[in-house]
Design brief:
mainly alpha, 0% strand, single chain, 106 residues, elongated, 53% helix
Length: 106
């Protein structure tokens, strides 16, 4: 069973802005040019209207000496939190019996 996190997860765009852009005095235009993407593309991520793609994760990891997994894991955690907390349809799914997977009895 997964441990549920009640607080909203941080969107990667917020981290880019707070941890990298502001301390380094980078504008959206300057960072977009450095990443080799359009200003609009970066702006949608920074303003939390788009997520981190595989390509963007590679670009960010190169620019900030991190790993692509950092960016992808952060995006995945954010997306999963939203799906779990903003939509409830998935809670109606019932567990199915899968041969070979015996339920543990506590």
């Amino acid at each position: 069973m997964r441990h549920r996190i009640n607080r909203i997860r941080t969107h990667p765009g917020e981290l880019i802005k707070a941890v990298y852009m502001e301390p380094l005095n980078l504008t959206v235009t300057a960072l977009a040019a450095s990443l080799g993407v359009s200003r609009k593309t970066l702006s949608t991520i920074i303003n939390e209207r788009a997520g981190i793609t595989l390509d963007m994760a590679l670009r960010l990891s190169r620019a900030f000496s991190t790993t692509p997994e950092l960016w992808l894991n952060m995006q995945q955690a954010y997306d999963l939190w939203r799906a779990e907390n903003e939509h409830t349809d998935w809670q109606q799914v019932t567990a199915l019996y899968v041969p070979g997977q015996e339920q543990k009895i506590s």
